[in-house]
Write a structure and sequence with these properties.
Layout: H1 2-12, E1 15-23, E2 27-34, E3 37-44, H2 49-64, E4 78-82, E5 89-96, E6 101-102, H3 103-109, H4 117-136, E7 139-140, E8 149-151, E9 157-159, E10 166-167, H5 170-177, H6 193-196, H7 204-211
Antiparallel strand pairs: 1-2, 2-3, 3-5, 4-5, 6-8, 7-10, 8-9
Amino acid sequence: MDREIYQGLLLQNRYQVVKKLGKGGLAQTWEMDDRGTKKVLKVLFENDDKVVELFQREATVLSKLDCPGIPTVELDAYFTFPSQGSGEPLHCLMMEFIEGQNLREWLIERNNQPINQEQAIRWLQQLVEILKEVHAQHYFHRDIKPSNIMLKPDGQLVLIDFGAVREVTPTFLHKKQQNWSGTKIGTVGYTPPEQHRGLAVPQSDFFSLGRT
């Protein structure tokens, strides 16, 4: 798959691969050079309809949000190119590169020593402001945890990985009134009980934020 990604990006005639950053359950990320600007490429390696829908939703949501605590995504940042192995398209999303490390990595470096109250309040204020922007666009994140929060060198926190984001629509609200169960996404230890039952609501983000 790595070779396919290199070849596919060459066809874009714009990006250069710098290095692979990591791999999750459904996608892998790369550091890219976009004509002198560092960016992150997220490549989906699952073509399940639901997974692709969530990936496309992530691209749409990030392109709508304008906040220092959310990665910037341009309108043309989502694209596909054919996979030579299966013939199915590879789905790609180009995002702003966030300098720094996630809070899980940061804590490990500190041997999991607790932060002081002043820093906790400062970070909580930043994250609440970020969620305010997300919720104002009628979306909620559904996977807030230390590994999905980046700490930049200037102290700014950035919420990343919007792959589980959900839109609040009239249809969604109607289904909730009928106790409809939606997709169950989350992380043990951070996900609220109602989300484990497929009944997440925007307020569920604040449970995860509190656990974080």
